[in-house]
Amino acid sequence: MSDTGSGAQPHAAATRPHDSAVTDAFGLLGDGTRLAVLLAIWEAHDPADEDNSLSFSEIFERVDYDDPGNLRYHLGKLEGQFIERAPEHDGYALRVPAQKLVRDIVAGVGDHDERLEPTPIDQRCPFCGAGTKVSYREGILFWACHECDGMTPGRDFASFDPPGPLAAVSFDPAGLDEWTAEELRAALAVRGRRRTREQFEGLCPTCSGQVDARFDWCDDHDPDGCHACGLRWRVGARFRCRTCENYGGASPRRLALFHPAVVSFYDDHGVSTRFRADEYERAKAVYDLVLDHEVELVAEDPVRVAVTARHDGDAIRVTFDEDVQFVDATRG
Q1: Which residues form the DUF7347 domain (predicted)?
Q2: CB hemisphere CA count around 45 (13 angstroms)
């Protein structure tokens, strides 16, 4: 049914969370006062300012603590791992790990209570023509059709939540209030494109580990409701991080847009493949382009997968190898 890929399984990183340095770092944050200290320094943080430190008295006032000696004890515990002394400014500044931690807190990472109930948007399902909706739960932003099986024909879509999935991507809850429902659909596309590109280029977007890639395909595929694989497309790229085992997938029709020759092909026809998170109509147009790409499993040994894009009587064909890397681009 598929190419099995490289099979590299270095699990040594799985022991890292048990290393004393890592457990000690998490242990340091077990006291609420220490988190309050990091947040207090963060409030004074200005990326454009050379001095991002906060004096002891300012921290004491912002944290609203009643014991200066005990606060110094907490600062001493944080120093080195999360904060550093800034003698020239007579204060304390956040180290990079602490900045990342506070950004995660501000973004709402770990908050699984935020929800967005299914909200209709002005985009029809590409498979049945029904209206589609965006929703959010447990840190995932969904785009789905509630009238058909979406990207999973052949599976019991009634068991999916939401049903009829079309796309999904991890999304920090702090961003939910920043966008309209349509903009969330575009933001989903931007986030998904960025994460897929990093995986395609061998970098895990979650832990910065190395990513292995391969193609899977269905030998007996029925695009209208495949009970063999349950998926809409016969051929799919699969990505897996060697370190954190983060897993992802993408259709090669979408990966074709990562080749500069394909971008130039569309540019030559006055069609842009670029869009921002606040450009909903552009995001829809690019999605429609991708849907029209033709995918062919050219060979199984060695694996070759080709994608053809057409516009105004012109065409370009790009070919991938078994490691989901471009090996050829032919126009005409």
Answers
A1: 23-105
A2: 19
For residue 162, give the DSSP letter. S
Q: Where are the domains of the chain?
A: 31-107, 116-249, 255-331
Among 18-27, 64-73, 87-96, 184-193, name the one with the lowest average pLDDT: 18-27
Whole-angstrom distance, CA of residue 153 vs CA of residue 148: 8
Give the residues across from 168 on adjacent strands.
142
Q: Which residues pair with 306 in a beta bridge?
A: 296, 319
- Residue 93 DSSP SS3: strand
CA gyration radius for the chain? Answer: 24
Q: Which fold has domain 31-107?
A: Arc Repressor Mutant, subunit A (1.10.10)
Of 71, 73, 76, 43, residue with least CA distance to 57 = 71
Output the pTM of the full model.
0.78
Asked if 99 and 106 touch (Cβ cutoff 8 Å), the reply is no
Cβ pair 34, 70 in contact under 8 A:
no
